[in-house]
Amino acid sequence: MSTDTMTHPVALTLEVESWRPIPGVSGYEASDLGRVRSMRRKQPKILRATAGPCGFRTVRVSALIGGGTCRRVGSLIALAWVGPRPRGAEVRRLDGDPLNDKADNLAYGTLQEACTDHAARAEREGERGAPKLCAYGHRLADKWLGNWGDRLCPDCKLEENRKTKRKAQNRAYYLAHRAPKPLVNPCVDCGTDVHQNGGPGVFKRCELCRVKASTAATCRYRAKSRKPSRVSRCIDCGVSIRNTGPGPMAQRCVPHKKLAQRAASERYERRTRRASGWRRAHRLPDTDHLPETGRHGVRAAHSFDTTTKETR
Predict the structure, then answer these.
(1) Which of 132, 150, 131, 134 is nearest to 54 (CA)?
(2) Whole-angstrom Cα distance, residue 35 to residue 73?
(3) Which residue, 72, 5, 60, is CA-closest to 33?
(4) What is the per-residue pLDDT across 98-130, written as a single tens digit (0 to 9) for each?
(5) Is residue 38 packed enough to be buried (19+ CB in 10 Å), middle (13-18) or exposed (0-12)?
(6) Strand partners, 28
């Protein structure tokens, strides 16, 4: 089996990292320093391992068909460097550290042997000054059974289990011995007797009052969600005008609007006739029918002739 060697970039000392393909997991390789990389791309990619609640590091390995699964890094390293796992065997960490997944720290063994490794680590850390008692004065277990590899207090765990069981028992006792629900209640609106059907709820109204209350609630909801009315009044006759569009409110009704438009047209015509009469009285040519350039030309020539006569 061919191996690929490279220098570990994180190690302080010069270490040679060897890679081997993982049997049964195609496209992935494991190193003797406890890392896993993917070979499914053009460039190899080191997978990021995260420590879960079990205390061991895990990586997400994708299958050829379907989604991926989370596998323990120690199991993958052991498959590549130790060999196939025997039936019923566990992956041991010889130093008892669940985060140390180097190939020389892994071996197959029974569950009792794995617990012995954890107990040895607990004893070593206790000699270094690690706490042996929990916050309540109970002795910590020698096995790493808690979350994220922490030592667990068996007495606190049992007490927590007792509290959970006691809470469930109290709930069951309450449900079994609670006061029976009355079979007949008076309606809160009309006072008639309301017969209960034995369900978890209690009817406070009779059937007729329930329908009325539901209808009233629906009307209140619709009135609250209805848009504000867009109604204005004509400034001439005072008739209500319903505005359906989103624009500004109308000021006149349709008949008075037409009358106002007609009056505006008449005012414009009278103003135009008055301007034409002023031109004829002052002997000015009518330039409304000429283009803009012709107007300026005629007006300019006329003003020039007038000044010329006056100067003469």
Answers:
(1) 150
(2) 7
(3) 5
(4) 888 999 999 999 988 888 888 788 777 777 777
(5) middle
(6) 38
- The span from the CA of 76 to the CA of 95, in Å, is 18
CA separation, residue 50 to residues 35, 56, 76, 80, 191 (Å): 12, 8, 14, 20, 65
CA 205 to chain centre: 41
Domain residue ranges in the chain: 4-129, 131-178, 184-225, 233-277
- Residue 193's identity, in one-letter code, is D
Q: Residue type at 71?
A: R
Calculated CA dihedral for residues 166, 171, 173, 176, nearest 10 degrees:
-160
Look up residue 88 and give its DSSP letter. T
**Domain range 4-129, CATH architecture:** Alpha-Beta Complex (3.90)
Provide the whole-model pTM.
0.45
Pull the structure tokens for residue 233: 């009044």
Query: Tokens in use for 204?
Result: 């406070």
Q: Which residues of the chain have pLDDT under 50?
A: 1-2, 10-12, 148, 293-312
Q: Retrieve residue 48's tokens.
A: 């990021």
- Residue at 1: amino acid letter: M
What pLDDT is recorded for position 156?
80
What is the per-residue pLDDT for 108? 94
Which residues are 108's β-sheet partners?
Answer: 91
pLDDT of residue 243: 82
